[in-house]
Protein: Thymidylate kinase
Organism: Kluyveromyces dobzhanskii CBS 2104
Amino acid sequence: MARGKLILIEGLDRTGKSTQSEKILSALGDEAVLLKFPDRTTRIGELINQYLTDSNFELPAQSIHLLFSANRWELNSEIHSLLEAGKHVILDRYVYSGVAYSAAKEIPGMDISWCFNPDKGLLKPDLTLFFSNQDSSSLQDREGFGEERYEKIEFQKRVRHTFSNVFDHISDPNRAIVDVSDRSIEEVFRYIEPLFRTVINKDLEGFTYF
Ligand code: FDM
Ligand code: MG
């Protein structure tokens, strides 16, 4: 049986990642599963959720970084099994968010290379779509924005910049940028559908790893 494909939707906050991930899932039906990182339902995920939602719960930047990575590792073998069973796995955020949000804190010693290290060896997606918009100023208008720890305009601007450095650091020919500015949900989906369908129809053997 052909293995399933690993498709990653990455990007800045509020660019429609979750909406499009759901649309891909509906388009693929029961051939696919959708996983979201952080997965807040595990024990590690509960800690991450507490860190993101409770400003009184402090952790060193290094510790929370390693928890986000540990959260990916705890699902790695499940993702592997799903792919081997022929299921396509759609990920809503993964390694690139992990590196970009932590490195954007600009903590001495916690550079991109340091941040990437604990994720080395994780399954590498067959396709990564990076959702981007022109600027972060419209974020303020989005309902609910500002409730979680990283939802601050200044920080989001640094994350945007850091993502592009992360992409320079981690090479990947199977990565595409999707500019969602001024595009409706349907327009974005029409743009990405041929991209993920092409990857799904490929006959790939073996896996690649970060
Ligand atoms: N985030 C997400 C990280 O800082 N590191 C990670 O490894 C991942 C997967 O967590 F601000 C950040 C990105 C975002 C926050 O993500 C919660 P969602 O997608 O808004 O739940
Ligand atoms: Mg969020």
About this structure: Helices lie at 17-28, 43-53, 61-84, 95-103, 112-116, 153-169, 185-200.
